[in-house]
Amino acid sequence: MKNVKAMPSLKEAKLRRNLDVETIHYKLNDKYQNLGKGKKYYIYTYGCQGNEADSEVMAGILEGIGYVEAIDPLDADLVLLNTCAIRENAEQRIWGVLGQLKGRKRDNPDLLVGICGCMPQEESAANKIINSYDVDIVFGTHNRDHLPELIYDAYMTKAKVVEVLSNEGNILEDAPKHRKSKHKAWVSIMYGCDEFCTYCIVPYTRGRERSRSKDEIIKEVEELVQEGYKEVTLLGQNVNAYGKDLGLDYTFGDLLYDLDKTGIERIRYTTSHPRDLDLKTMEAMRDCRSVMPHLHLPVQSGDNDILKIMNRKYTHEIYMEKVNKLKELVPGISITTDIIVGFPNETEEQFLHTLDLCHEAGFEGAFTFI
Fold first, then answer.
1. What is the rounded CA–CA span in Å between residue 43 and residue 69?
2. Rounded Cα–Cα distance for residues 358 and 368 (Å)
3. Longest Cα pair distance anywhere in the chain, in angstroms?
4. Strand, coil or helix: what is 352?
5. What whole-number distance in Å separates Cα of residue 35 and Cα of residue 154?
6. Average pLDDT per consecutive 10 residues, the chain (370 residues; last block may be shorter)
7. Same CATH fold, 293-370 and 181-292?
8. pLDDT in tens, 88-100
9. Do residues 299 and 319 touch, judged by C-beta distance below 8 A?
């Protein structure tokens, strides 16, 4: 039995219609106030820091309706798997966990299992989840605020509840958060991506680029300072593009200068796209006391032809110009990167161009992928 409210559509996810982005202010319906009273939840989180931040929001929402976090997933009444669609090994682990939970559901028919995040935004993955696995709730990246309603429907109807929206995305404000650390905090500053690198599904699973209001971001960091937090990591699929969609003369560099005034001791940020790394951001890294001298700047390849096939919109030479300027402005800066090896059609000579760039850049670390 299924209650399918919405299914993902790659055709819909590809659209970029320049519609106004809606800011949704979270408000809990009284109907769901004690929905989780006396029950425990457990969230598995896979993938990027953005997923970790999303899990903190979902945990806050669940605790707002009465759930308590379980230490052990076997003790939970609700298990959510917040999934990643980028890395194949993450998908394989998810199928394994679902297999383990199948036996747990046999012993406890009242256990609710939910799949959320990026995997359900893929049509093929969503169909596999819905048709081949015993799950109760399926939702995507655009409707975390609907979680109480989805749980309620699953309890009331005893049907598999599916709501995966393929829109261009919105911005959720005022949602409660259950932060994992008392000292370091994730702060999302923007969502989505408009880069459309040929190997990446993020523009389809996360929607178009949309920036939060600078006032909301500054207020969140100021509140974290008051609560005793020492460090924030600013999150976005492409943080360097912050503000471009707002039509204001206010960029990511401006935001760094403003956040430096809040009193937070350390600011980090991820992930950056080389094309959007501008001089003002580099100057902010030089000038702002709180901005840490570390930058994760994915290069993916050092060969210009491969970069073109990847649709990265920069060259080996442009990348190195930015790296050298960073090192000039921020002496001793630590630069890390991502590299894809064996991209379709890559020759040995092209791979050697990537090795050349690694020697030139002097990276302190790299995530490498076949």
1. 9
2. 12
3. 63
4. helix
5. 12
6. 88 81 94 97 95 97 98 95 85 86 88 96 91 94 96 95 91 97 98 95 93 98 98 97 94 98 98 97 98 98 98 98 98 98 97 98 96
7. yes
8. 777 788 888 988 8
9. yes
369 within 8 A of 346, measured Cβ to Cβ: no
3-state secondary structure of 85: coil
CATH code matching the domain that covers 181-292, chosen among 3.40.50.300, 3.30.750.210, 3.40.190.10, 3.40.50.720? 3.30.750.210
Segment holding 107, helix H or strand E: helix 88-107
Helix H or strand E encompassing 181: none
CATH code of the domain made up of 2-163: 3.40.50.12160
State the CATH architecture for 293-370: 2-Layer Sandwich (3.30)
d(CA 185, CA 316): 34
The first and second tokens of residue 209, run together, are 């680029």
pLDDT in tens, 153-165: 999 999 999 999 9
Residue found under tokens 């969502």: 191
Q: What is the DSSP string of 18-34?
A: -PPPPEEEP---GGGTT
Strands 78-83, 68-69: parallel, antiparallel or unpaired by DSSP? unpaired
CB 58 within 8 A of CB 81: no
Strand order in the sheet with 365-369: 294-296, 334-340, 365-369
**Total residue count of the chain as it appears in this document:** 370
Q: Spell out the domain ranges in the chain.
A: 2-163, 181-292, 293-370
Q: Could you give the CA distance from residue 146 to residue 26 in angstroms, rounded to a whole number?
A: 10
